[in-house]
């Protein structure tokens, strides 16, 4: 769907592939200029090039969201090059599948990227949007931000924390014209899951993890993000929108 975002500027972190890339492409298809960010330079540059090849406008800037100074530089670049910031999808995150998240270093990295990174981004984005009097922020949480996960304390805690930050931002900036929401994806087919789904037996298991009997697509999450940023969601703020094929309905 084309939301008519001509003249608007969107920022997407974690946009080298998967959900972030799908969202960046969707923003561009709706007319927005897109600031693409990631720590994967090749993937991020490719996303920006895909937007340009389709006739859109984009730039890529590397940013480790766990570093506050890099986030500040990213937002400054968006404003310097495009003059404003209307939408932000704070999507950058890590999933330490198979790692021991009780390990100090693994835990600290999860907190730094998944939680502190979202706070740093929200803080800088809101400063620009407050000056404009309007803006929309969408944070990527997970269904593990709503339910428990016995294998991943770091991932579960940080994704719960993202929903807390989302509700905080929604309340803090509600009267200032800034809406803050979250998307909570279920099992989504992305480059992160590709090594697993290459095995037909594992793919069958992952397809069976949702009542709909299939994995979600990155474009389905992107569609939810764009709707939350659009005027069609003008009275929606502080909401964790679940897009999971019914997984949390069981």
Question: What are the salient characteristics of this protein?
Answer:
9 strands, two-stranded parallel sheet, Rossmann fold, seven-stranded parallel β-sheet, 46% helix, 250 residues, alpha/beta
Tell me what you see in this structure.
By secondary structure, the protein is an alpha/beta fold. The chain has a single domain, classed as 3-Layer(aba) Sandwich (Rossmann fold), CATH 3.40.50.720. It contains eight helices and nine strands. It has a seven-stranded parallel sheet, with helices on both faces. A two-stranded parallel ribbon has the order 7-8. Strand 1, helix 1 and strand 2 form a beta-alpha-beta unit. Helix 1 packs parallel to helix 2 and helix 4 packs parallel to helix 5. The longest helix is centred in the middle third of the chain and has 29 residues. The protein is globular, with a radius of gyration of 17 Å. 47% of the residues are buried. The mean pLDDT is 96.
Quick summary of this structure?
By secondary structure, this protein is an alpha/beta fold. The chain contains eight helices and nine strands.
Total DSSP E strands = 9
**Count of the separate structural domains:** 1
Helix content: 40-55%
Please give the radius of gyration in angstroms: 17 Å
Would you tell me the overall average pLDDT?
A: 96
Strand order of the largest sheet: 3-2-1-4-5-6-9
């Amino acid at each position: 769907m084309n939301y008519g975002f001509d003249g608007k500027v969107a920022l997407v972190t974690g946009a080298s592939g998967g959900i972030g890339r799908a969202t960046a492409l969707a923003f561009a298809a709706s007319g927005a200029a897109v600031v693409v960010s990631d720590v994967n330079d090749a993937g991020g540059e490719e996303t920006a090039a895909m937007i340009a090849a389709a006739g859109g406008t984009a730039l890529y800037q590397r940013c480790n969201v766990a570093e506050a100074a890099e986030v500040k530089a990213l937002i400054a670049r968006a404003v310097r090059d495009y003059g404003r910031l209307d939408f932000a999808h704070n999507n950058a995150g890590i999933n330490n599948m198979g790692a021991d998240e009780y390990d100090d270093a693994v835990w600290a990295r999860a907190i730094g990227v998944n939680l502190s990174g979202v706070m740093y981004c929200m803080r800088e984005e809101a400063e620009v949007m407050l000056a404009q009097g309007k803006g929309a922020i969408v944070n990527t949480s997970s269904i593990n931000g709503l339910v428990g996960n016995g294998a991943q304390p770091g991932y579960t805690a940080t994704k719960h924390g993202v929903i807390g930050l989302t509700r905080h931002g929604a309340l803090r900036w509600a009267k200032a014209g800034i809406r803050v929401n979250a998307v909570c994806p279920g099992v989504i087919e992305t480059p992160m899951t590709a090594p697993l789904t290459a095995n037909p037996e594992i793919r069958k298991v992952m397809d069976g993890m949702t009542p709909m009997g299939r994995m979600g697509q990155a474009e389905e999450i992107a569609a939810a993000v764009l709707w939350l940023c659009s005027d069609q969601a003008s009275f929606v703020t502080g909401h964790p929108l679940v897009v999971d094929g019914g997984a949390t309905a069981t």
